[in-house]
Design goal:
This protein has about 280 residues and is of the alpha+beta class. The protein has eleven helices and six strands. The chain is about 40% helix and about 15% strand. Helix 8 crosses helix 9.
Length: about 280
């Protein structure tokens, strides 16, 4: 493992649940995005990390074009799916498919799985450490050479080792990311369902309190809003805010860091893992 790959991993283990946006994982300030992404893919090939991707361009695949020439009456395809296929005969961004943003990811993923649509261009979105990666850093990695490692990265590595050795019982996050104590909880409890603006403020405050680096797990929000809101009310509010481009919802890929109850607080999807993280859009 070269020095840049090591720095990439040590940056990653400094984030809550060893999960971060790719944009936050530059080994060095001058590392270009293409090199950063190459490092990410190399580490993923060795099963030390995994990552999710986001569609940038889609295009109707030959089977999809053939389907558009047929009478689709009675075929198992929806009007929205047909609209996406017609609009994507040339490469376009997902936003230009004409699909509502709340349903876009699910519909496009389904079309790609069915071979009717293909991903022309994707970008890496979220990165997380695998159990294999954690074991490698903890038990197998042997430093060689004389690379310069900052004290911050060394601190991330030491916290990983201490957590594994039991010196941080019950601790899963670096000190800077520890969960807020009850005394620090300044968010009021709502007696009536909050407005969308109050929900956004609550998300921002929970993110600050739990230091989740703009990747707030949904279970924190449910703890604050249910009651007075129901689970369905919270789901609807999150979809509404996503449609207004106020937030993004990101799915959970690596489940070992969460309890079953926390995972079940996510929003189930027909395709892929549950929507689990809330990302505020600036």
């Amino acid at each position: 493992m070269d020095a840049k790959e090591l720095k990439f991993l040590l940056k990653l283990v400094g984030f809550p649940e060893y999960h971060a946006s790719i944009t936050k994982l530059k080994p060095n300030p001058k590392t270009k995005a293409a090199e950063r992404d190459s490092i990410c893919r190399s580490l993923a090939e060795r099963e030390l990390i995994e990552y999710s991707t986001e569609l940038e361009k889609v295009k109707t695949a030959p089977p999809g074009k053939a389907l558009l020439k047929q009478d689709t009456t009675g075929l198992p395809i929806t009007k929205e799916e047909l609209k996406a296929l017609r609009n994507a005969e040339e490469p376009i961004s997902p936003g230009k498919t004409g699909i509502d943003s709340a349903k876009r990811q699910e519909i496009l993923s389904t079309l790609i799985e069915r071979g009717l649509l293909k991903a022309e261009k994707t970008k890496i979105k979220d990165v997380w450490l695998t159990q294999r990666g954690e074991t490698y850093l903890r038990e197998e990695y042997t430093p060689t050479g004389t690379p310069t490692i900052s004290l911050e990265l060394l601190g991330n590595y030491l916290r990983l080792l201490r957590k594994s050795s039991g010196e941080l019982p019950g601790e899963t996050l670096p000190e800077s990311h520890q969960t807020a104590t009850a005394e620090e909880d300044t968010i009021p409890h709502f007696s009536e369902p909050p407005s969308d603006e109050e929900i956004l403020n609550t998300i921002a405050e929970l993110d600050r309190q739990h230091q989740t680096e703009n990747y707030l797990p949904i279970f924190y929000l449910r703890q604050k809003l249910q009651p007075p809101m129901t689970r369905e009310d919270v789901d609807s509010a999150l979809y509404r805010l996503q449609k207004q481009d106020k937030i993004e919802l990101s799915s959970l890929q690596e489940t070992h860091a969460y309890t079953t109850e926390q995972i079940e607080a996510g929003i189930e999807q027909n395709v892929g893992g549950p929507l689990f993280f809330i990302i505020l859009l600036k």
